[in-house]
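Possible regression after last week's pipeline update?

I re-ran a chain I had predicted before the update to compare outputs. Posting the input and the new output here so someone can diff against the archived version. Not blocking, just want to make sure nothing changed silently.
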Amino acid sequence: MQAAGENQKEALEGTLITISDVLEYLFCPRFIFYMYCLDIPQHEEKRFKVQKGREVHETRKLTNRDHTRKRLNCKRKESEVFIASSKNHIKGIVDEVLFLEDGTAAPLEYKFAEYKDKIFKTYKNQLILQALLIQENYNIEVNRGYICFTRSNNLVKEIAIKPSDFDKSLKIIQEILDVMNKGVYPKTTRSSRKCIDCCYRNICV
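New output (post-update):
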């Protein structure tokens, strides 16, 4: 007879969640339940910012390949990189993987947004997850990431990433896998303001 831990390990084998899944879980844990336990899509393609963000990515890909190399101490970069980790059950696309002169690497993410003297937790968490994937797949240290705010004249902000940030992200990934595997209805977000713009507000109780 297998132990509970072994059963869960087998159930999750091959499961890969996306970086977007993690960010939506942080927005509200019930996103994961509705999407994966009840199989109700959120139709994100209808949201303006998502559409505009995708346009920005396509424009960058075509017209601005050397943009960051001129600004940062970057020896080379790879663009639109898909990376996955079966060990940590996570996958995602990094806008740019920068290989820096000090021997480390860093993710760079373009945002269709203005910089208003604040780095949102969502942005930082996205960079941490990308850094986790880069570090594992390229076997290279990653201790920072960059956000390019396209609506602030392409202002680039650096965000430090510590080993403890990786530990926190891995814990969140495990929480998501527990919801998916056990089908437990999670608590809603603590901020009711998020519910106003939520695509699941009509069915969430």
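Follow-up from reviewer: compared with the archived run. Residues 163-182 form the longest helix (20 residues). Marking as no regression found.
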